[in-house]
Amino acid sequence: MITTADEALLRRAIGIAARAVELGDAPYGSLLAGPDGTVLAEAHNTVRRDDDITAHPELKLARWAARVLDEEAAARATLYTSCQPCGMCAGALVRSGIGRVVYALATAQLVELNPASGAWPVVAHDGPALFDEARGPIEAYYREG
User: Fold this and answer.
1) Which among 87, 117, 115, 120 is positioned nearest to 26, based on CA atoms?
2) Where along the sequence do coiled-coil regions lie (predicted)?
3) How confident is the model at residue 96 (pLDDT cuts 50, 70, 90)?
4) Which DSSP symbol is given to 115?
5) Residue 144 is a catalytic residue
């Protein structure tokens, strides 16, 4: 359930997205807040500026959280973002341990506003294969850890 406190922080994330546009960047902004609403970090999309397809604000904040926050602090943090995280960012958020995400626009709404946002090609996947060969490094690594 989204509270009025969530809405205030979500508006700040939307403001970060608006500021990104003013700077010539793509219109996506995010912030990470602690359980009391304290803003821990902010980021906006810099894909074009950095010539880096991974420079999404959600991914930047997931990386930051994984480096800076302990497991408990990450689990109590909330990411507020102007648009629903893409698959790449969603995976990073899971791995970072961030406990909650609140977003303004759903992916389907974004695609309605900008159809090119949904025009990603399908990447073919083949596998699994070579299990006996692939398991060696995995087993060696986890035996030592």
Assistant:
1) 117
2) none
3) very high
4) G
5) no
